[in-house]
Amino acid sequence: AQSVTQPDIHITVSEGASLELRCNYSYGATPYLFWYVQSPGQGLQLLLKYFSGDTLVQGIKGFEAEFKRSQSSFNLRKPSVHWSDAAEYFCAVAAVSGTYKYIFGTGTRLKVLA
Amino acid sequence: KAGVTQTPRYLIKTRGQQVTLSCSPISGHRSVSWYQQTPGQGLQFLFEYFSETQRNKGNFPGRFSGRQFSNSRSEMNVSTLELGDSALYLCASSLAGVVRGETQYFGPGTRLLVL
Lengths: 114, 115
Description:
The complex is a heterodimer of chains A (114) and B (115).
Chain A lengths: L2 E3 L4 E5 L4 E3 L2 E3 L5 E7 L5 E7 L5 E3 L5 E5 L4 E6 L8 E10 L3 E5 L3 E6 L1
Parallel strand pairs in A: 2-12
Antiparallel strand pairs in A: 1-4, 3-9, 5-6, 5-10, 7-8, 8-9, 10-11, 10-12
Chain B lengths: L4 E3 L2 E4 L5 E6 L6 E8 L3 E9 L2 E5 L6 E5 L5 E5 L8 E8 L10 E2 L3 E5 L1
């Protein structure tokens, strides 16, 4: 069965520090991968997506993610975190199992220290 | 272009009641999906509608139902509410559905509290 794992429930970083949020997936074929961000009380906003091609994907707000097939990972990175990045981050895979659907990870809540 | 809108934003109901939530997709989008988000279960797929037909369905009881109108607006209904139905209900729209990983655009959600 398809699944998405975000092993870190909470992460705390200092403003200006680098950030890496982990995402591992289980899927038989090449997946379509997404990172979304959710601010408190808000819906989800797409940060970036990977379909094919270059394994390093650039997104909005200075985020990037790297697809590593050998590790079944799609980790999200940012070189310098801003206080406004504090939010919850969700990794998702678009999977086919008879029908297409999105499968979301459980999320990583990011706290940024001033 | 206006984003996905959901009404109402907040609802308080009591056990046993029913509730209807509404979602207006981005103009031109024909697919609407619904998700339930809770602290314990995370984001769970409820169902997807495309051109007024339910195309996909998640693992939720029959108390959860939906429909889509010819203008692509969608409603979700929950009958005989239970305490565990308290959640943020998110609607997402896309042009043609979750086909080959098409991007979904999410609304702000409706927060339902069941007392």
